[in-house]
Each structure stands twice: as structure tokens, then as C-alpha cells.
Amino acid sequence: MDRYNEARPGLGDDFLELVNDALAKATLPRPGVVVPGVRSATIRRLLLTPRFPYAVILQTEERVVVAVAHLRKRPNYWRARLPARGVSAARKRPRK
Length: 96
Description:
By secondary structure, the chain is an alpha+beta fold. 22% of the residues lie in helices and 21% in strands. Strands 1-2-3-4 form a four-stranded antiparallel sheet, with helices on one face. The model is unreliable at 88-92 (pLDDT under 50).
């Protein structure tokens, strides 16, 4: 958020508002979309806007935010936070 505010005052606040909007959607019965390569349908992805290339990754049964992940820089780093049975072996990527 600080990086965005340094780039343009108020931009970080816009980013935070979009994250909060995504979190508000987390209370819906089936928020977002199922994440490809994740076996569990309870792991869902809520995209922000093209303006901010981030997604909020949720575990919907527990209503837990797994990550707010950048979609271009290390987009799958958060997969290591999931239980082993929740991730398809074919989609796992080795850590660098």
C-alpha cells in the first residue's frame, strides 16, 4: 500500500478499498471462482481489478484469507500454505 501511495497519493487507499470490497464478498455463499489446480472447492479466488493485479485467496469453510497475492509476481507462492491434499500434484511448482 505504501508503494502505491508513493507512486500517487491516494492510490494505496484505492487498493485497500478494493481489498476490503473483496473481503465483504467473502460472506457470499460461493464467493469468487475455484482456483485451477486446487482440489478443494473451498479455496476460492476473488480478483481485484485490472488496475491492481492482485487476488484475495480465501478458504471459504473457515472464512480465512490465505493470501492477497500478486497475479504476476510469484502468483502461486500461497499454495504452500494449503494442506497437501488440497493441491493437485501436477500444479505444484518447486520453490526457487
